[in-house]
Design brief:
The chain is α+β, with helices and mostly antiparallel strands and about 150 residues long. It has 3 helices and 10 strands; from the N terminus they run αββαββββββββα. β8 and β9 form a beta hairpin. The longest helix has 17 residues. About 20% of the residues are buried.
């Protein structure tokens, strides 16, 4: 067999081993799916997720909106969010995760006036138009508190 032909066979065998995961080529370092970043002047950090983490968790948002709602017999324009965006802390306080930028989220305290079906009527919270997390908020809370869910 020619030297050129045996060299090509050796190269092909090395490539097969590498592609099969048996080679000695170093794997690229994996990026953490989420990072918790301190926010100056606040005890509440912000969370930055990779695109893959957002996709895997199915993160979805909807904007805070104003709606005519009747509470205690009074109909008026009020701030509402989907009830799925409400997170309860261990002491019963209510929060929601707002989307600061693409893939960056921060927990914000809210005051729920009343729950009406699938909406939470707020007396305090983010401004109308602010995107709030409606799918994946419990996973964000777990990430913030470093709870993996596998324990």
């Amino acid at each position: 067999m020619s030297t050129k032909k045996s060299g090509l066979i050796g190269l092909a065998a090395a490539l097969i081993l590498i592609l099969a995961g048996c080679g000695t080529v170093a794997e690229p370092e994996e990026q953490a799916p989420a990072t918790v970043q301190a926010v100056a002047g606040s005890p509440i950090p912000q969370l930055r997720l990779t695109g893959q983490a957002v996709h895997r968790l199915g993160i979805a948002t909807q904007p805070v909106r104003l709606a005519h709602v009747t509470v205690a017999g009074q109909a008026r324009l009020r701030t509402v969010i989907p009830y799925s965006a409400v997170i309860y802390d261990n002491d019963g306080s209510t929060w929601t995760y707002v989307s600061i930028t693409a893939r960056t989220f921060r927990r914000q305290r809210i005051t729920v006036l009343v729950i009406q079906g699938s909406i939470a009527v707020l007396s305090q919270g983010p401004a109308a138009g602010t995107p709030v997390v409606t799918v994946g908020a419990p996973e964000l809370l777990g990430t913030e508190y470093n709870i993996s869910g596998e324990e």
